[in-house]
Amino acid sequence: MKFKDYYEILGLPRGATQDEVKRAYRKLARKYHPDVSKDSDAETRFKELGEAYAVLKDPEKRAAYDQMGGQWKTGQDFQPPPGWDAGFEFSGGNFGPGAGVDHSEFFEALFGRHAGAGQSAHRPPRGQDHHAKVLIDLVDAYRGAQRSISLRMPMLDAQGRIAMQERKLDVGIPKGIRAGQHLRLAGQGAPGLGGGPAGDLYLEIAFKPDPQFRADGRDVYVTLPLAPWEAALGASVMAPTPEGPVQLTIPPGSVAGRQLRLKGRGIPGTPPGDLYVMLTIALPPADSEAAQEAYRAMAKAFDFNPRKALEGQAR
Amino acid sequence: MNPIVMTYVQGPVVEEEVRFTLVELCQACSAEQEHVLTWVFEGVLDPVGESPEDWRFSGESLRRARLAMRLSRDLEINPPGVALALDLLDEIAALRARLQRAGVR
Asked: Is the minimum CB–CB distance between B11 and chain A shorter than 8 Å?
């Protein structure tokens, strides 16, 4: 087990006042909250912050933590000294930051598995509802799919203790589901107490990043490169869609940035979404004598000034 | 090694097929009733129905209520602050979606 320096995590000296602890936590928590920050490590950072704050804001836990002395450094191998918490009594957390999160092994070794989570005195007999996220491919939303997911969730074992248990579920992903929507799986949450009904499991749907397609609600976007002559003269080209390529007519005189809408080719539903094909123009490289000659012929054939709109605006 | 038990499960799409009562919404996002009541009065959630017993929350309320719950718990933000943060987050999400549509990642 690695030691965690909770003062370092909050960027505080060991002598910081309770007000300074609170200020430092709030400032960093706003920065790294996973709902606010897009940093890839925001979730890890935020968990650490919550854990550091759960210890340092609580005078009892902080005093016990301080007693271990300042010689420990983050990442050092650590075992709590025997009897390290003698003389301290932890009255348990209440509803507040850090409640309901998984704590590190380090935290649990010191303060017990549930010291940070607010344990309400009476839990209702119905089991708690649980939440998880599931990543699917965009094409799953077009066709519907069956996805196996494994979940780690706290369950009561035969002795009535809470232990993490792995469960596998085979989930039906309905056709037409969109990113950000939730599936409710009745009775797949935490088991009830004393014969009460189990809670529900909510699955939040997200799409795996796709190299080609971008979904926004029901609508799907794809970029289609064209040769200059295809855009200018019109053409019939193959365009990718999540359901496979389709023949697409490019009208003559198409310009880069133009969007062609394929009605009803977005994510299915009532109404179905649309597929937007965004045109870009790719220039062939002038990497041979013949290609350069072709560009020179174009320059001669056109009386074309691409900067016409800028004229008269020079400053 | 225990045999892996696979259970096939299906369920409704919350945003399209589910309406929550106050009690159900509290259960679904582990919130106290008083929190949800405050968020309704701050305009974070907008149920139909006259009194709290008759309220029905749209499926979309699940996401908003969970977000409100996390922001108020983790950042110790008061209800008007939660309402403001949710509005701003919605706006950021809309702007990000516009960037993404244009192919900017």
From this structure: yes
The pLDDT score that the predictor gives to residue A314 is 57
- Give the model confidence (pLDDT) of B3-15 as tens digits: 556 778 899 999 9
**Closest approach of B36 to chain A, Cα-based (Å):** 15
Instruction: Select the residue of B28, B30, B75 nearest A33 (Cβ to Cβ).
Output: B75
Domain count, chain B: 1
Q: What is the pTM of this model?
A: 0.75
Does domain A6-111 fall under CATH 1.10.287.110? My reply is yes
- Residues in A closer than 8 angstroms to B30, CB to CB, are 100, 128-129
**CATH class for the domain made up of A130-207:** mainly beta
Quick one: DSSP state of residue B50? S
